[in-house]
Design a protein that fits this description.
The chain is mainly alpha-helical. The chain is 80% helix and 0% strand.
Length: 416
């Protein structure tokens, strides 16, 4: 985007269009090149516009507001399909399709920001229709075990990658756009959590108010308002992150700085507790499952904190915390990996064990790259860009593995 800004300083229409397509990315790239074009009247005006300290809430365009409202309504309607058609199993429907109640609207939201007419919707539409048809024509033998369960678990991850493609305008190998998308994802998680907490407080107050005067309202509230509200959170959160980056950018760094040391301490004592108590992931399948979810959560925090630290040009102490957290996570990953190898050697290969085994290897390799890059960044903060690259460049590897699990595993192992 930097080269496009430089080439079109005398083209205000193009610059405005470029800015509206991705405001946060435009601001970041513009600020990086501003010193070289400082003194240019157009550049100075854009600098004041982008960096003016304004904490007022922006509501975006009327088109965006309408899109968010309509998307939230339709997302809620999708969750009501089993109620509308009683012959559809509610349990099976949600397990297979819950991601389709959220991601399509986020994908079309970012697609609508592009300036290419209705043709721009064709590719995202195809990328959505294929997974929807595919997962719903798979036989429903058992949705909780075997390959079908894996397909259902990995489908939201595939939707996330499709959202990434849409966000980056299908420039999948541009690491800067990927980093921007990951930063957006972190901001969205933070804002969604805040909205969720606010919604939970509102729900509690509503229950307290209506419990004695109209008890039937509580059941109605749970079945309708709560469900509609939950699927609307990511949609509303995306709208807030996009239209109010100046507010979100103040919250996310605080969350990253607060939780990184807390998670580091918690993980350290968790590992000690495992040794002292004697709890073993080698024999306890449920414990191994929880252990792997813990790894995924901690790795997500490492990615989020690393990007925030890079964006804010944090201190060396922040880098040290990330190095220690990465090292502890590598140790945890090694324990989990050895436990999976043990289970495979004892009970043989299965779709679930193979999936966990390969997923842990991929995470371990990625963590090692991040760890080495963080060591270099500690010596010279300019190398923080290598940490970002080690995160961004591994995304296609994860995508390839997700596609294998979803589309190849059912062919190799069957839908069992």
């Amino acid at each position: 985007m930097e080269s496009e800004i430089l080439k079109n300083l005398d083209n205000p229409n193009f610059l405005e269009r470029l800015y509206r397509e991705n405001k946060s990315s435009f601001k970041k790239d513009f600020n990086e090149i501003y010193e070289s074009i400082k003194g240019n009247n157009v550049a100075d005006v854009w600098n004041e516009r982008l960096n003016y300290d304004n904490d007022k809430i922006a509501w975006g365009s009327q088109k965006e507001i309408i899109f968010v409202v309509i998307s939230s309504i339709f997302a809620g309607i999708i969750t009501k399909i089993p109620d509308i058609f009683p012959f559809i199993s509610k349990e099976t429907f949600f397990y297979k399709n819950i991601s389709f109640a959220i991601f399509p609207f986020l994908i079309f939201y970012f697609t609508s920001l592009k300036q290419r007419g209705f043709k721009k919707y064709f590719v995202p539409l195809v990328l959505l229709i294929v997974p929807i048809l595919y997962i719903n024509i798979l036989p429903e033998n058992n949705i909780y075990t075997g390959t079908l369960s894996l397909v259902c678990i990995f489908m939201p991850i595939l939707m996330y990658f499709i959202l990434d493609l849409t966000f980056s305008d299908f420039d999948f190998f541009d690491y800067k756009k990927r980093i921007e998308f990951l930063k957006f994802s972190g901001d969205l998680v933070v804002i969604s959590a805040i909205i969720f907490i606010a919604g939970a407080i509102l729900t509690f107050i509503s229950f307290a108010l209506f419990k004695f005067i109209y008890p039937e309202f509580i059941e109605f509230y749970l079945k309708n308002i709560v469900v509609w509200g939950l699927v609307s959170i990511p949609i509303v959160g995306t709208y807030i992150v996009r239209t109010n980056p100046q507010i979100v950018n103040k919250v996310s760094p605080l969350i990253a700085k607060l939780f990184t040391p807390l998670v580091l301490i918690t993980l350290f004592f968790y590992l000690i507790s495992i040794v002292v108590i004697g709890k073993s992931p080698y024999q306890d399948r449920e414990f191994l499952l929880v252990f792997n979810f813990l790894l995924i959560g901690v790795m997500a925090l490492i990615l989020f904190s690393t990007l925030e630290n890079s964006k804010q040009r944090g201190s060396k102490s922040g880098v040290v915390l990330l190095i220690l957290l990465s090292l502890l996570t590598i140790v945890c990953n090694g324990v989990a990996l050895s436990a999976i190898v043990f289970r495979i050697s004892e009970w043989g290969i299965s779709p679930n064990r193979l999936t966990v085994f390969v997923s842990n290897i991929l995470m371990l390799v990625n963590l090692v790259f991040i760890f080495v890059s963080l060591i270099r960044a500690y010596r010279n903060f300019d190398f923080m860009i290598n940490v970002e690259k080690s995160i961004a460049y591994f995304f296609p590897v994860y995508l390839l593995w997700v596609l294998v699990v979803i589309f190849v595993f059912p062919l190799v192992f069957g839908v069992v």
